[in-house]
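One such shown below:

_____
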Amino acid sequence: MAKAEAERGRHGDTPCDLVLSGARVIDPETGIDGVRDVAVRDGMIVAVTEPPEPAPAAATVIDVSGLVLAPGFIDLHSHAQSRTGLRLQSLDGVTTSLDLEAGTLPFTETVRRATEQGRPINFGYAAHWALARMHLFDGLPLDAGPFAWGDNSHLPMWRRPADRAGVDRLVALLEGELAAGALGVGMLVGYAPDSGRAEYFEVAALAARMGVPTFTHTRYISKEEPHTSFEGAAEVVAAAAGTGAHMHMCHMNSTSNFMVDEIARMVEGAQRMGVRVTTEAYPYGSGSTVLGASFLTPEGLARLGAGPSSVHLLSRDERPATAERLLELREEDPGALVILDWLDENDPEQLEVLKRSLLFPDAAIASDSMWVTTSDGRPVTDEWPVPPDGTTHPRSAGCFAKTLRWLVRELRVLTLPETIRRCTLLPAQILAEAAPAMARKGRVQPGCDADLTIFDPDTVTDRATFTDPAVPSAGFHHVIVDGTFVVRDGKPVLDALPGRPILSHHATQGA
């Protein structure tokens, strides 16, 4: 009786909703790595107990012995912001998926619409710098839809430098989006390399004033002087040093373009001096974008060390054989989704370059997930299972499972706890200043959100390939968001939509 009363005193009189029993629990913040029982009530972790200490009483107890229980993965870079895209990500262990490199515009309307529709996992957005430019300088309507940027990336004026008045209007528009709760500014300057450097600095200064990061696709991708990848990365570092802003460099693996060692030395040196620069990477040697991207001209591809046939147009399953054919396709459908092979993963030396970008100290794992389209180019937004002709980049379905399979289990270049840290706590810390909700995520501790992923470390694997890219990962037994199963026994729970918006500290409410 005394023992039962003591347990009620520790964990409260109300039974828990759920106890997950016997897993290897890995909490990257406290360093816990051992068998524990995790109790959940009302969407929150209320106890983490070590046997033989009894777990609290619960309505449901699930034996997860032999599995790893970790914080749910936090993806800082996902353009797959639909039910279909986020469900694919949930089957890859993701519980929070954020579109920060690009973002959205208008922020309030996008969040309202997504919340009303419901999402299986948590979601959030940056303020979309490129769409703001299209609106101000090309007249694109403010609410042109979720695919407006890709469909209108060919517009001429948004890629050009703005005058002082134009920069002031842009900064004012972005400031309003940040005040509404956007998590930072997504800066696709690599798609508008002729936009002004002074403008970039002004936006960084705005982010510093508002206490949020910027998320940059760097201005240049090349190893040929001038306008190298190093120069693009140096602009990010300089803006951070000059404004005090937290500047996040997106997909270091692809934008470094074989200059990863030089860029890594620069970023490490800046970090040692207190400059706030962070990075991310994904474990693939190919990227994905829209066909009208500024760097996919024949000249731009040559600077990448690639050619027209390095571009795979997914809707037609075509690799253009000539520069003329590439230009013709770009003219016909600039918003079409493509895969760009920037590195040969079958070449051991090139594969080492990819690996070094992933092993950079404190580089987060972030997928750069893309939306799914059908063979005729139609976006798939609310269908399950994915249609047989659904296509995307395989990172959209398998980024985190591939990281666990390749870097941890096969190469053994990262430990499992360190990899989990890069998928959970580190992204939460990158957003800690901007988003109060991040203090409760990326951790397995009492008082933290019950966003959890439970997987078999010996079998977890990606199954998405370039020929079959929308196949869900395997080995994730359960994924829980806000205490609710969105994946149970390896299968999606289709009526579970517990995802909440992640908002900045400027918003009146948060997840």
Q: What stands out?
A: The longest helix spans residues 164-179.
